[in-house]
């Protein structure tokens, strides 16, 4: 699966840069690890990050097993 995603999102007249990527779907165990080991710590490092993810995405990062159920998560790799 290939997709174009924004590499940098810059505002106020700046140029957007895009990167062509290949998405590899994560298996159920890897999805739990993503929510527990990557997204959780990242959200906790940002003021209101946990709240934002819970309100916008409907994900409760305190329960990574439940957060991973029914959600598709992809590892994105740049196409060369």
Q: Can you give the mean pLDDT?
A: 82
Distance between the termini: 14 Å
Q: Number of DSSP strands? A: 3
Radius of gyration over all CA atoms, rounded: 15 Å
Shape: globular
Overall tally of domains: 1
* Relative helix content: 25-40%
Overview of the structural elements:
- This protein is of the alpha+beta class.
- The protein has one domain.
- Helix content is 39%, strand content 26%.
- The chain is built from three helices and three strands; from the N terminus they run E-E-H-H-H-E.
- It has helices at residues 28-44, 49-57, 64-68; strands spanning 2-8, 17-25, 74-78.
- A three-stranded antiparallel beta sheet has the order 1-2-3, with no helix packed on it.
- The longest helix is centred in the middle third of the chain and has 17 residues, at 28-44.
- The chain is globular, with a radius of gyration of 15 Å.
- The two termini are 14 Å apart.
Feature tags:
alpha+beta; single chain; 3 helices; globular; three-stranded antiparallel β-sheet; 80 residues; 3 strands
